[in-house]
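Our collaborator T.R. sent over the components below with a one-line note: 'Predict the complex.' Nothing else. No constraints on interfaces, no templates requested, no preferences about which chain binds where. So this is a plain run: every listed entity goes in together, and whatever single assembly comes back becomes the starting point for the next discussion.
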Amino acid sequence: DIVMTQTPLSSPVTLGQPASISCRSSQSLVHSDGNTYLSWLQQRPGQPPRPLIYKISNRFSGVPDRFSGGGAGTDFTLKISRVEAEDVGVYYCTQATQYPWTFGQGTKVEIK
Amino acid sequence: QVQLQESGPGLVKPSETLSLTCTVSGGSISGYYWTWVRQPPGKGLEWIGYIYSSGSTKYNPSLRSRVTISLDTSKNQFSLKLSSVTAADTAVYYCARFVGGSGWFFDYWGQGTLVTVSS
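Returned assembly:
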């Protein structure tokens, strides 16, 4: 199985300041078709996961542009340019390049 | 707007079979991967498996011997059965839609349903 490791596990951030979450995979996430199937999900307290980004850097409709994704191969990053109160929650990276699909352990973003 | 809603017993006895159904509204079953994901209390997400609209399935090897996912296109529903449950199977169970093709991502999720395994 591909292991997804996120750092940090907790990220206290001041409102309006940036936040960055790292996701590292135990194997390359480049599929044989050339695509990299790395996505990011946001889970607000008491809510189901909400898709934010797919294929490393593509934002879903309705996702604010303060969220951005980047990286390649085995190293990926989710950045929030200016954290707002509604961004509080747990963020997960997930890969669908190889079965079984796996998730990172989650990074909790909270306000200082 | 596509909506997914899980339903089923919230309490299951050890060694019995957990059965959940996901009802899809606002969209077609056709052309998507219908997926189950679970989340133990206070923990992360685990992919259980999926059924494609054609009926083909894929399961997480860690659960494969105990899992069956089925599809009822006439009712726009898909179902999960997990046999021989133990306390370790206590979790919030989510159904989700997964888009294949050039996308390959989850896009819609149900609200989730907590299933507790206890006698």
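Summary for T.R.: The first strand of chain B starts at residue 3 and ends at 7.
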